[in-house]
Amino acid sequence: MHTNDPTITIDFEQAISFSRFLQRIINSDPSQKTRLLSNASRPFHKTEMLDFLQRGTSIAMHDEFGLNSILRILRRQVISRLAVRDISGCAELTEVMSTMTDLAEISINYALSHHEKWLSAPEHFGSPKRKGTNQSQQLLVVAMGKLGGRELNVSSDVDLIFAYPEDGETDGKKSISNHEFFARLGRKLIASLNDYTVDGYVFRVDMRLRPHGECSPLAISFDMLKEYFQTQGREWERHAWIKGRVISENTSADDESRLMEQIVKPFVFRKYLDFGAYASMRSLHRQVRKEVERREMHDNIKLGPGGIREIEFITQVFQLIRGGHDVDLCIRPTLDVLQQLQRKQQLPVRTVTELVDAYRFLRKLEHRLQFLDDQQTQTLPGSNEDRELIATSMGFQSYEKFLQQLEVHRMHVSHHFELIFAAPKKSATHDILSNLWQTQPENAAQKEAAASQLSTLGFDEPTKISERVQQFYQSQFYLQLPELSQHKIRMLLPAMIETIVRFPPVETTLERMLKLLEAISSKKSSPASYLTLLLEHPDTLPRVAKLVSISQWASDYLGRHPIVLDELLRHQEPNPLPDWEALKNELASQFNHVNKPKSDVIGWQMDHLRHFQHAQVFRLLATDLEGSLKLETLSDQLTALADLVLETVLMLAWNGLRKRHRNTPRFAIIGYGKLGGKELGYASDLDIVFLFDDDHPDAAETYTKLAHSVNTWLTSQTSAGLLYATDLRLRPNGNSGLWVHSIEAFSQYQHSQAWVWEHQALTRARCAAGDREVAQAFESTRKEILCRQRDLQQLKENILSMREKMRDAHPNQTALFDIKHDRGGIIDVEFIVQFLILGHAHRYPELTGNIGNIALLKLAAQLNLISAENAEKARRAYREFRRTQHRQRLNSDDNLTGTPTTDGSVQALNRVETAQLNDDRLAVIALWNEVFGN
């Protein structure tokens, strides 16, 4: 029953001795003891509370006295049973919190419904109406704090805020303004809960969290609340509103959505990653610590060091930073948030384990303290008698042993709090570097001092570095930044200078880092947030500097999508490969989450999917640049990501169609080219074809709309960027053909109309997403085509003719070797493999397997179609070509999308010195000659 010490057990009757509150109840009415002990074996469920009130309706319905009496009697019964169950170890923490929360919600709604009925009677004030309509409106009771989080403790205040949709007047005999009606209703509700009568009280009510606190009206309209948030809302109020939750049951769903989705959520959760939350939380914590010191509250387990509030601050800072981006964190219970932070690798497993254990222990202790006298206290007792009571009720043999365990938990909390909230430390040279470039560049002494300091740090050409930094500070871009952004850059740049000296070539690294600063500083939608990320997490700077020093493209990618910097903060194993099934489930969970936006859903889904795709690309990029990922593995992973995105987009696009003739589409997306062959690069286009197998009269029209929608989802440029560029020209009849084809029409075209080059393309095709039966039908057609017996001489001529056309379309007038298009390059290898498949698959159908060019060359050698020696050399050459091409593209200034700013930029990416790959080129030519002749 008590995990702390198995020698201590407490039965129901003994539990009473640990609560003077229970003893007073029993002393006033001894019969209560028998009833209490007989019922203590079962929780006090919500249904039992409602049944109790239902039986007492005849008393409560007549006047406030009867209403207040029955609520207090219910409260006494619930607390009494809960105290016995908790102290005896029968009730888990979740039961205690949920029971108290249920009691509060039921009491509030029961009192609210009676007072609303009495006040809105026609002979009294009548119902509050909306302007211009005859529609009634209700008071929205918003629970804050622990009630909002369904974490209420046993002697807690309830923090409430009263809101109503809009101003107007009531329609009764004594008509008053809606504002006055709801204020009166609020005062009546508070009195029914808060006033102390002969039967006690229900809950103390705290209304100070409303805008302007005690100086403001008791009830506020939605417009007033919205204007307040937009013009005067303070940071601490964002923290408070995280747990805000409408608990009034008679509320219109539209009104609740309007309040929480359109007014509260944009105030609490920013659309960008709000790393400024660290500073505001530090400020709030300093205020709490100052108050603790002033009032000597070190023994307070809520507000004191290592207390409950610090655990809540930890969860809330992550929610404020990421809640606008991740609906999983738009939740209220502290323990649930901690589990999400562990699952999302924002906190290490050990950290979460220790925080959860501490939270459970401290909340359990909080309840033991409050059960003593039914007082709202979180302070350890001063008397020896009470200390022994608390220690024993917590399962310890002595107060000293109890204190030892308490201290362990508080030390854990303080340790993790300090790690998370510690202000970044400056290096010894930070201030010196900060002051080096604050004067005009013509100051010779300043120039000399800067160069000297940079030389000390290890820069070989300090003058060049100093001049470039000074140039940045004098640039029009920097001078036009808001003062906040300028300040953050001045704080960040010294640490950046100290970092880049470790990542040569330092001039290149500096230039790329400065460009990155420009890119992330100019994001208007997220003012200075990513600068703050780098300031708050200086350990990320070396990782960023290393990435940009290795790859120009990585630097550009970070500039375009700075939100992926957040991926560097995850606590995970080094360079793990993605778990695509888990990520698929995670994505589906986000799209179906109860907290997803209720308006502009498609826009949110598009942005969220883009953020997801960019994050996965960046994870793979970081792993790749660490040198721990083979190119073939990288391509497999990028292809798996594309498949997942296509499957998700297909589902979203189908659900978005207004007219659908079936629940799931009999539709498939066929991948060709690099997507089909699983050789995708970081920014490859997707060559796709849309097929269906459905005889419904509306099928062609519906699937055409679906195909257009899928393409729009993929190619739309939103504020979050692009998913993929697509190429649909490989469909039957190319650009002049239909967007979608039935399996029957596709098969007929391939059998009777397709060109040889289209059959060549089919060698790398596969179903990337969609219906399994359609995929099987496509694969059956594909194999039929590829296994057709062909005249080898005619096939050779057709393929050689196509190869010559391609070479003519990509002339190389330089002395360099074009890895892709020149003789002995990548395309020659691909054409060799395609010829072997089309020419011999009728005898060896295993050649139709989608196993990639390297594996197919090996298989062809095993089948004695080509020599093993030439095959192995060509395999090595093909692998090296792809590696070289990959490295060159990573260090290019091009965006790698295939749409360069100049005609020759993509070709230039494929070209190297001829001698560099000469042996590999000759190996491919040798195999070409073996297969096709000279």
Automatic annotation (TrEMBL):
A molecular function GO annotation: ligase activity
Segments of this protein annotated with the region Disordered: 882-904
Residue span of region Adenylyl transferase: 434-934
Chain ranges passing through the membrane: none
UniProt entry keywords in alphabetical sequence: ATP-binding, Ligase, Magnesium, Multifunctional enzyme, Nucleotide-binding, Nucleotidyltransferase, Transferase
Catalytic activity, EC: 2.7.7.89, 2.7.7.42
Single biological process term from Gene Ontology: regulation of glutamine family amino acid metabolic process
GO CC term, one of those recorded: cytosol
Polar residues biased stretches: 893-904
Enzyme kind, highest EC tier: transferase
PII-uridylyltransferase/Glutamine-synthetase adenylyltransferase domain mapped to chain residues: 283-421, 801-893
Segments forming domain Glutamate-ammonia ligase adenylyltransferase repeated: 13-252, 543-780
Catalysed transformations (reactions): [glutamine synthetase]-L-tyrosine + ATP = [glutamine synthetase]-O(4)-(5'-adenylyl)-L-tyrosine + diphosphate; [glutamine synthetase]-O(4)-(5'-adenylyl)-L-tyrosine + phosphate = [glutamine synthetase]-L-tyrosine + ADP
SUPFAM superfamilies assigned: Nucleotidyltransferase, Nucleotidyltransferase substrate binding subunit/domain
Cofactors: Mg(2+)
Segments of this protein annotated with the region Adenylyl removase: 1-425
Family per record: Belongs to the GlnE family.
Function: Involved in the regulation of glutamine synthetase GlnA, a key enzyme in the process to assimilate ammonia. When cellular nitrogen levels are high, the C-terminal adenylyl transferase (AT) inactivates GlnA by covalent transfer of an adenylyl group from ATP to specific tyrosine residue of GlnA, thus reducing its activity. Conversely, when nitrogen levels are low, the N-terminal adenylyl removase (AR) activates GlnA by removing the adenylyl group by phosphorolysis, increasing its activity.
Protein name per UniProt: Bifunctional glutamine synthetase adenylyltransferase/adenylyl-removing enzyme
Gene source species: Nitrosomonas marina
Gene it is expressed from: glnE
